[in-house]
Design goal:
The structure holds 2 protein chains of 2 kinds. Chain A is α/β, with parallel strands linked by helices. Chain A is built from 11 helices and 5 strands. In chain B, helix 1 runs parallel beside helix 2 and helix 3 runs parallel beside helix 5. Chain B is globular, with a radius of gyration of 19 Å. The chains are: A alpha/beta, B alpha/beta.
């Protein structure tokens, strides 16, 4: 369930992401739109325990966007949460830009791990979770992965280690949109059976919608109440969610609309000619 | 060398609770000593080096000082992208310790030889590279790595290296002159020092005076030290248990050319090949022209005497 004001906020965020990407000249729009509701729930609806005045507060929850190509969505949500300045997002891919297409610690103090090359984020999250345990911190580490990303071997090294080290403060979120760059995930590696795979590696697995903020939030709470080791939330999502021509279409992994499709984007996201100028 | 490493690491762990010892199924009896003393600060990641390196980056981001330890080949080659993206790009305080530098894993062949690690890793920004030659130097390098707030790679041999330094500490992480002479200068790094030292003794007994410089800190390199030698000698000989491309010879060649120092550099090392032979370290060095006798011949040829 999504209430009306959240729905409007999300549409406005999609619009912000699209216009920023369009003006920058390139973006992974479909990937951004598939994980947007979850980023919104994490940063704006209060799942993440963070102090907006101190990005380095010791016991803050950490969020890592391991599928770094959703970076523009992360930056847009950070802006909406009041954590980064408008100028920073506006500079995206422009001359002297402050941010690029992947989240980068060098560029932004709210980014907990630089990502872009897939299969790194869960391992870094694992290390942070281990350090937090040593410090007896109550904080959680959330790592969002793409389902295509799970083809990277190191993800499974981290999956094994997290179980072995009993990290009940590590929560992986799978943005399960079922599409990778060239094709569907199932066409690439056959039916992936993520639930069985993760359960057999000793993880607790939960399934929810990645677009229903209430359901997702409740799921996170359930995970935290029950965690006795690492947990995975498989969030069912639609790649390109929110723009009809882009939804569930692998062609949209990394491109901007041409003339004809642009009309659809503008109409469905409520964008005017002036806003794109 | 392993014992010197763990001994120093335990000293640091005692001093600073942020120090953590990470293994990838790569432990030895020495590590069990560490486990006994610091049971909650040693982790075995299993045979998963890339995950270990990235997790170390995460730990460092959360304020710890992780030392990752396994075969240098599995770090420098297999985990290279993780060293680059997660550790060095973020300039995180991770210490990467590769055991078995050069031909140390002599019985296992080129998959285990660490003869391109300097070339691979020195192109990565922010990474300090240390190459100790003796057990005392290992301890000194570990201390230096700990004191440096940033990424460090230490390559360590593992063949009961001979000690050339006296005293409690070997203040030798800077280029260090072990022999003095005017006929030629030899630069050496790492465990191969023991072979080169033998050559220098022999040359000396025959009235040939060579200067021998043992280099431990490969990056950042003390350029001024080398440029003085480049100005004083016609020939600089380098000896390394590494490909002659991209390692010590490569470093000196770059410095010489960038600074217009007209000096001839004669590289002695693995000649852009995968090392031949199996067996003990003496035999494999010999098979690749890197035993004391072969190096001696090459040096004589280089200085024309």
């Amino acid at each position: 369930m999504i209430n009306k004001s959240d729905e409007e906020e999300l549409k406005s965020l999609r619009k912000r992401i699209f216009i920023t990407g369009y003006k920058g000249g390139m973006a992974h729009l479909a990937s951004c739109f598939s994980c947007l509701e979850m980023l919104y729930a994490l940063y704006i609806k209060g799942i993440l325990k963070i102090d907006p005045t101190d990005p380095k507060q010791k016991d803050r929850d950490r969020f890592i966007l391991s599928k770094g190509h959703g970076g523009l969505a992360l930056y847009a949500v950070l802006e909406r949460a009041g954590l980064i300045e408008k100028d920073m997002l506006d500079s995206y891919l422009k001359e002297n830009s402050l941010i690029g297409g992947e989240p980068c610690m060098r560029d932004c103090e709210w980014v907990e791990a630089t990502t872009g090359s897939l299969g790194h984020g869960l391992s870094m999250g694992l290390g942070i979770a281990m350090a937090l345990k040593l410090d007896k911190s109550p904080a959680y580490v959330y790592v969002m992965l793409g389902d295509g990303e799970l083809e990277e071997g190191t993800v499974w090294e981290a999956v094994m280690a997290a179980h072995s080290f009993g990290l009940d403060n590590l929560i992986a979120i799978l943005d399960c949109n079922k599409i990778q760059k060239m094709d569907s995930v199932a066409n690439t590696i056959r039916e992936p059976h993520w639930v069985e795979k993760f359960e057999s590696f000793g993880w607790a697995v939960y399934e929810t919608s990645g677009h229903d903020i209430d359901a997702f939030t409740k799921c996170v709470h359930r995970v935290k109440e029950n965690a006795s080791g690492p947990s995975l939330i498989i969030a069912d999502t639609v790649k390109g969610k929110g723009v009809s021509v882009m939804e569930n279409n692998p062609n949209w992994h990394f491109k901007l609309p041409g003339k004809r499709d642009l009309k659809v984007f503008m109409e469905e996201l409520g964008i005017t000619e002036e806003e794109l100028a | 060398m392993n014992s010197a490493y763990i001994g120093k690491l335990m000293e640091l762990a005692e001093r600073d609770e942020r120090v953590i010892h990470l293994l990838a199924d790569s432990g030895t009896g020495y590590d069990e000593m560490f486990r006994r003393n610091f049971p909650d600060r040693i982790y075995n990641f299993g045979i998963a080096e890339e995950n270990m390196v990235a997790a170390a980056a995460g730990m460092a981001a959360a304020g710890k000082i992780p030392f990752v330890f396994t075969a240098g080949a599995f770090l420098a080659y297999r985990s290279m992208e993780f060293i680059r993206d997660d550790v060095c790009f973020q300039n995180l305080n991770v210490k990467i310790v590769g055991m078995g530098s050069g031909l140390s894993w002599s019985s296992l062949g080129p998959t285990h030889h660490t003869t391109e690690d300097i070339a691979v890793l020195r192109s990565i920004p922010n990474l300090m590279i240390l190459s100790p030659a003796t057990p005392k130097q290992v301890a000194e390098c570990v201390e230096k790595a700990y004191e440096h707030n940033g990424p460090v790679y230490i390559r360590i041999g593992m063949n009961h290296e001979r000690e050339f330094y006296d005293g409690d500490t070997a203040e030798t992480t800077e280029p260090d002159v072990l022999f003095d002479g005017k006929d030629a200068v030899i630069y050496v790094t790492g465990s191969i020092l023991e072979e080169v030292y033998e050559c220098c003794e022999k040359l000396k007994s025959q009235g040939i005076g060579v200067k021998l410089v043992n280099v431990t800190t490969l990056k950042p390199f003390d350029e001024r030290f080398f440029l003085k030698d480049a100005a004083s000698f016609d020939t600089v000989i380098t000896v390394e248990e590494h490909n002659i491309h991209g390692g010590l010879a490569g470093i000196l060649a770059e410095i010489a050319v960038f600074n217009k120092a007209g000096v001839k550099i004669v590289p002695i090392g693995i000649e852009d090949s995968f090392a031949a032979g199996y067996g003990d370290i003496k035999g494999v060095r010999k098979a690749n022209g890197l035993d004391a006798d072969s190096i001696y011949e090459k040096i004589r040829k280089a200085i024309g005497r």
